[in-house]
Amino acid sequence: xxxxxxxxxxxxxxLRVVVDTNVxxxxxxxxxxxxxxxVEAVRRGEVEPVLSWELFEEIADVLARPKLEGYELPPETxxxxxxxxxxxxxxxxxDVELRDVDDxxxxxAAIAGQADAIVTGDRGLLDDAELRTWLAERxxxxxxxxxxxxxxx
Length: 153
What we know:
The chain is α/β, with parallel strands linked by helices and about 150 residues long.
């Protein structure tokens, strides 16, 4: 069952979703891709982003990596992203057993922010049956960008 909640910034109903770093990065650099549709849905208020400061720091770190320098992304993108997302950034400390400890900010943000879903392309998260069950018990579902995009169409 999908839970829809009011998104205060735009006054519409929106699905509360943790958008994983790989989806943010792909969506920012490839706006016509499926992850790009997710980022655009966030911008339009169809999806309410659920984040943590740790997750935002990870996004900022990835955007600053030298291998992304060749891609064209306006330098002010990170600042605009921070201004847009800052109200949704709680401080989160959550001890969760994960295969990959680098996924902790994503899972912590979902639990602390009472997200409906985590959207990710990370197979480590998507294929972790124990984590999937643990999250589902807390009302959080793991979705690929394509799965979430299909619910927005």
